[in-house]
Design brief:
By secondary structure, the protein is an alpha+beta fold. Helices cover 31% and strands 16% of the residues. It contains 3 helices and 4 strands; from the N terminus they run αββββαα. It has a 4-stranded antiparallel β-sheet, covered by helices on one side. It is elongated. Residues 34-134 form the GSKIP domain.
Length: 140
């Protein structure tokens, strides 16, 4: 049995995993990959929202993770993260609503941009500050 912490990049190319459906999408990814991806998403934009964390009650799997986000406008969402992207699956933490058919967004930035004008402002200001800092660095 293979350890789940195995780095697939260290595997020789002729392992034959390609034929095994369990491992078809394994190359270049970590088995715990969507939870890690969700944590990275949260860390990326936490500064620009009121609250954001990976759901501990909804199941994370290789191919799906759920993220709770509260915008600065105090609106709560549960987001689903899959290979297809991110989408709103409920208008509260730790919920999913199968009747809700919301579009997928390729990035968390695009999704939050569509949900929260305050996010857009905070994120835009952060980019401006970073650009100003880079400008000062290049001038010194």
């Amino acid at each position: 049995r293979m350890e789940t912490d195995c780095n697939p990049m260290e595997l020789p190319n002729n392992t034959g995993f390609e034929e095994d459906s369990d491992y078809r999408d394994f190359e270049g990814t970590d088995v715990k990959d969507m939870r890690l991806e969700a944590e990275a998403v949260v860390n990326d934009v936490l500064f620009a929202v009121s609250n954001m964390f990976v759901s501990k009650t909804l199941p994370c799997a290789e191919d799906v993770a759920y993220i709770n986000v509260e915008t600065r406008e105090r609106n709560r969402y549960c987001l689903e993260l899959t290979e297809a992207g991110l989408r709103v699956v409920a208008y509260d933490f730790d919920q999913t609503d199968d009747k809700l058919q919301t579009p997928y967004h390729e990035t968390v930035y695009s999704l939050l941009d569509s949900l929260s004008p305050a996010y857009r402002e905070v994120f835009g200001n952060a980019i401006l500050q970073r650009l100003e800092a880079l400008k000062k660095e290049s001038q010194s």
